[in-house]
């Protein structure tokens, strides 16, 4: 057992930013907008660092797939206590088309390469809310998965997990190696202290990887037609199913499927 | 000049600038705008912003009302490494730069100027004095504690000597290998929680200010009495107390620097501390402004947002300009100091201007908020009360102006 944990960290638009749709409806505005580490990824990093502090694992490796700026996200993970980082360089069109399946393939390949004992991910990213990467990665590796974890404890070479599910809490025991995805109540992520930030900047141990062309050829798996903001809420309107039926009947033909983004 | 350019280049090449530049890299790197931060500074600012929003903001109102700094806040300031920013990691510090301290103070002040001043005094006055003047033994004894759990206080002012600092009357009489100090100090910040006091006392009153010496006095020294804290208009969570020295014995080895050179150290430190206060006032103004503008964008009167009235827009834009100007003065003074160039006049300008801007901003913000600005339910009135001390402490506005005038006089004396 290598005692090595891979933690996936994704660079997303900061949760506090007001999302705006691009005028050409091809997506949301990201230029000049504040980005930070996905909050669920922070929780995953915290859990990994905690396991290392308890001496249950030996090394925490932070992985991020994205453009040059993803290195900032890796630095934040280093400042929280990760030992080294791997930046998988994906930019331009490839980055626009990057989705859970591609990321899962990358993570699976890295897990084999790094001989990882555990992969810790956030349960989902706050930009696409996919909630797929953890599950897909486990399937590709044929590893057990513990998703929506709110409690994790290592017992020998097995993991005890408490999962938050619709009906309440589920207790499971899985073998290692495994994939775990972090839910909100797993822990409270620590702040990067200033000395840790200084240390992370001295840390030159972030490797740059280019994904092999097999992965990058998986472009545009999910075609995006358009991105629109939801209509402004009118006061006192009946928002029940009757409304939807009414509009469909009115237009006469079935509505085209659009991916709409939630802008508040 | 080449030296400065090289420094800028090396600072720049360690990072990408905060603001995207469309200029060819070479031009941009020669003269980056003042709002250019190294990666280190950028990360620190983000970390402190987050920490202040989550750990300090919820406690601000209570601390102000009770005139008491929460122990949890003090503890977390140390834990975050904010109390030893420039101290070498060898002594448990963060090992960062002066400009990082300035950014930290600014971010803290946006949330609570009282917390910012605690951090400012520790970093720009206490730590700097120990780092610059401490003997290896003194550094060994104090620097580690100053970065990890001990607050320091700087004791210069007395009841009869504020601006006229060198007229201080606290005297130190030499006996063999120790001094006996008698007298009292007033308006000493951080005194409630400080573990060490840097006391300016005169060893030879007949020599005037050339007798002033800096003594390191531990809190548990017999005869040291910390008086009841003042009931202040603003910065209430920051303790401000009178001190009394009744025949306290201080060993000779506790002198910081040289005998009779205290006045030089005081001036020197205050020149730097000035930039810290400028950063505090800047953060205060920005924080107040940031709370107010969203309100003006939401509040509707006469069918439109109050922000949309031209009169309001002009006032808001004017204040925003003043804050930006204060920011540039402050950042430039800090960079000048870091570059080893003369910075005293610029530091005075920064402190004077930022304090005035804080006063203007907070006053206007209350007006823009209307009735709710006048209540304690909203944070604006606290900023208004807090800003006033900016024109008073660490050198009053009048002193700053006189100092600037001295420099101007010299400049034209050719």
From TrEMBL, chain A:
Among the GO molecular function terms of this UniProt record, one is: electron transfer activity
Name used for this protein in its record: Electron transfer flavoprotein subunit beta
Domain Electron transfer flavoprotein alpha/beta-subunit N-terminal as annotated: residue spans: 25-207
Q: Which gene encodes it?
A: ETFB
Work out whether the entry's keyword set contains Lipid metabolism. Answer: no
Subunit structure, interactors included? Heterodimer composed of ETFA and ETFB. Identified in a complex that contains ETFA, ETFB and ETFRF1. Interacts with ACADM.
Instruction: Tell me the compartments it is located in.
Output: Mitochondrion matrix
Q: What does this protein do?
A: Heterodimeric electron transfer flavoprotein that accepts electrons from several mitochondrial dehydrogenases, including acyl-CoA dehydrogenases, glutaryl-CoA and sarcosine dehydrogenase. It transfers the electrons to the main mitochondrial respiratory chain via ETF-ubiquinone oxidoreductase. Required for normal mitochondrial fatty acid oxidation and normal amino acid metabolism. ETFB binds an AMP molecule that probably has a purely structural role.
The domain of life for this entry's organism is Eukaryota
Q: Name one GO cellular component term.
A: mitochondrial matrix
Q: Name the keywords, alphabetized.
A: Electron transport, Transport
Concerning its family, UniProt says: Belongs to the ETF beta-subunit/FixA family.
Q: Which InterPro entries match?
A: ETF_a/b_N (IPR014730), ETF_b (IPR012255), ETF_beta_N (IPR033948), Rossmann-like_a/b/a_fold (IPR014729)
- Where is it mostly found? mitochondrion
A biological process from GO? fatty acid beta-oxidation using acyl-CoA dehydrogenase
UniProtKB/TrEMBL annotation, chain B:
Which species expresses this protein natively? Oreochromis niloticus (Nile tilapia)
Query: What CDD domains has UniProt attached to this entry?
Result: SCAD_SBCAD
The record's subcellular location field reads: Mitochondrion matrix
> What name is this protein filed under?
Short/branched chain specific acyl-CoA dehydrogenase, mitochondrial
| Gene3D superfamilies cross-referenced by the UniProt entry | Acyl-CoA dehydrogenase/oxidase, N-terminal domain, Butyryl-CoA Dehydrogenase, subunit A, domain 2, Butyryl-CoA Dehydrogenase, subunit A, domain 3
The record ties this protein, via PANTHER family, to: ACYL-COA DEHYDROGENASE (PTHR43884), SHORT_BRANCHED CHAIN SPECIFIC ACYL-COA DEHYDROGENASE, MITOCHONDRIAL (PTHR43884:SF1)
Broadest EC class assigned to this enzyme: oxidoreductase
GO molecular function term, any single one: short-chain 2-methyl fatty acyl-CoA dehydrogenase activity
What is any Pfam family matched here? Acyl-CoA_dh_M
Pathway(s) this gene product operates in, as recorded in its UniProt entry = Amino-acid degradation; L-isoleucine degradation; Lipid metabolism; mitochondrial fatty acid beta-oxidation
């Amino acid at each position: 057992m290598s005692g090595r944990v891979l933690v996936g960290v994704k660079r997303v638009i900061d949760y506090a930013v007001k999302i705006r749709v691009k005028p050409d409806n091809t997506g949301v505005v990201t230029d000049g907008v504040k980005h930070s580490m996905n909050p669920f990824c922070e929780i995953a990093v915290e859990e990994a660092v905690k396991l290392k502090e308890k001496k249950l694992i030996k090394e925490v490796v932070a992985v991020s797939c994205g453009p040059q700026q993803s290195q900032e996200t890796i630095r934040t993970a280093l400042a929280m206590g990760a030992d080294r980082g791997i930046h998988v360089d994906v930019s331009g069109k490839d980055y626009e088309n990057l989705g859970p399946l591609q990321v899962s393939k990358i993570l699976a390949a890295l897990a084999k390469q790094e001989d990882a004992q555990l992969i810790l991910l956030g349960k989902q990213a706050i930009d696409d809310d996919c909630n797929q990467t953890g599950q897909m990665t486990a399937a590709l590796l044929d590893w057990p998965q513990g998703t929506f974890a709110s409690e994790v404890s290592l017992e020998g070479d097995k993991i005890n997990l408490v999962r938050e599910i619709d009906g309440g809490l589920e207790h499971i025991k899985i073998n290692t190696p495994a994939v775990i995805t972090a839910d909100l109540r797993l822990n409270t992520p620590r702040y990067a202290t200033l000395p840790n930030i200084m240390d992370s900047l001295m840390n030159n141990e972030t490797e740059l990887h280019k994904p092999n062309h097999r992965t990058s050829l998986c472009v545009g798996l999910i075609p995006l037609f358009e991105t629109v903001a939801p209509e402004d809420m009118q006061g006192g309107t009946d928002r029940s199913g009757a409304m939807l039926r009414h509009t469909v009947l009115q237009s006469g033909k079935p509505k085209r499927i659009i991916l709409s983004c939630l802008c508040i | 000049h080449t030296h400065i350019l090289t420094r800028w280049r090396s600072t720049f090449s360690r990072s990408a600038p905060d603001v995207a530049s469309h200029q060819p890299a070479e031009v941009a790197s020669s003269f980056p705008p003042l709002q250019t931060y190294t990666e280190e500074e950028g990360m620190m600012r983000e970390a402190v912003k987050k920490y202040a929003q989550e750990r300090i903001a919820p406690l601000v109102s209570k601390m102000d009302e009770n005139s008491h700094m929460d122990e949890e806040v003090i503890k977390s300031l140390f834990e975050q490494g904010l109390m030893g920013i420039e101290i070498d990691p060898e002594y448990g510090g963060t090992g960062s730069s002066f400009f990082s301290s300035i950014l930290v103070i600014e971010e803290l002040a946006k949330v609570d100027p009282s917390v910012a001043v605690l951090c400012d005094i520790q970093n720009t006055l206490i730590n700097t004095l120990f780092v610059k003047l401490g003997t290896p033994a003194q550094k060994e004894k104090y620097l580690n504690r100053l970065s990890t759990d001990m607050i320091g206080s700087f004791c210069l002012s007395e009841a009869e000597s504020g601006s006229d600092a060198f007229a201080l009357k606290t005297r130190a009489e030499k006996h063999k290998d120790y001094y006996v100090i008698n007298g009292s100090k007033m308006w000493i910040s951080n005194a409630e929680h400080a573990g060490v006091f840097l006391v300016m006392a005169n060893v030879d009153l007949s020599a005037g200010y050339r007798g002033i010496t800096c003594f390191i006095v531990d809190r548990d020294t017999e005869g040291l009495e910390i008086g009841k804290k003042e009931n202040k208009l603003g910065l209430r969570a920051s303790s401000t107390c009178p001190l009394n020295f009744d025949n306290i014995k201080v060993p000779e080895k506790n002198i910081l620097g040289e005998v009779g050179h205290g006045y030089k150290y005081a001036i020197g430190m205050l020149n730097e501390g000035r930039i810290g206060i400028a950063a505090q006032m800047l953060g205060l103004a920005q924080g107040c402004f940031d709370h107010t503008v969203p309100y003006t964008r939401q509040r509707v009167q006469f069918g439109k947002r109050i922000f949309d009235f031209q009169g309001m827009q002009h006032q808001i834009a004017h204040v925003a300009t003043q804050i930006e100007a204060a920011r540039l003065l402050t950042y430039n003074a800090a960079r000048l100091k870091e570059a080893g160039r003369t910075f005293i006049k610029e530091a005075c300008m920064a402190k004077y201007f930022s304090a005035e801007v804080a006063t203007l901003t907070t006053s206007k913000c209350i007006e823009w908020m209307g009735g709710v600005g006048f209540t304690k339910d909203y944070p604006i009135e606290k900023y208004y009360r807090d800003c006033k001390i900016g024109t008073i402490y660490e050198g009053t506005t009048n002193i700053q102006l006189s100092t600037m005038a001295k420099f101007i006089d010299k400049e034209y004396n050719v």
